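Sample entry as discussed:
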Amino acid sequence: MIQDIQPRKLRNEYDPNVKVSDEDFVFIFNDLGVLNKINKAGNRIFPRYKEITKEEGFNNDAENYIYLFKIDDEKYFLYDEPFSELDISGGLLKEYAFTSVRDVRYDKDVSREEFFALSTAVHLNHWYTANRYCGHCGSHTVKDTKERALKCTNCGNIIYPKICPAVIVGVTNKDKILITKYARGFAHYALVAGFTEIGETLEETVQREVMEETGLLVKNIRYYKSQPWGVADDLLAGFYCDVCGDDNIKMDENELKLAEWYKREDIILQPDDYSLTNEMMQEFKEGRDH
């Protein structure tokens, strides 16, 4: 899955004293995606701070670069100002361009650790961008000096990064599993999925989402594995369960365009092995029942 980058390791401890230096990677986002380029070896890479400092249009004050995390000893930062292509004088854009995160994901020359770094940076960028102002009083927020948090300059409200729990559900029916396709967005085969509501356990989310999307009752709910999925601010929890009683599917056409029972040999996997959904489909396809 996306987080399986061993022997390399994500080191996400927050340290406000880490300052950006020449060799550090910098993520720069706008509405089009993330700034990157294809190098001479054909690999997609992100800019380093030493390249950005050569450009007019950037505020190169170190305070405008937020330390995000390390992968081993490589440091990653976020450029912390609203940004558009027009902010660049032209030099950097001769080599770099903005690419959607989805297109980066499906680029075969992007390594797993690079996309994991990007996915985690997307999650943090969503949070920093959405909380420039306090939700209580509307005043500006500033970065806390002790922990990964934002603090209101007026009322003192503390805002922590948002993580949205969601479930991925493999509903089994003897030698078959329930395969879906979403009505919009992601085009590949998937499983039932959905966000946990307030006051709800993960197991109750499994029952509710399966009922809402397919009209099926389930039993024997069992946990499989979890996964961070930063591009949607999620923490995914995977569960298998068994259909209970009637296996006639009543598909919610607002959510899905396909919901059918598939035998193991008929399962079509996703084009990469990054997602928990794909791993759960593969586990069932290869007979490793859970």
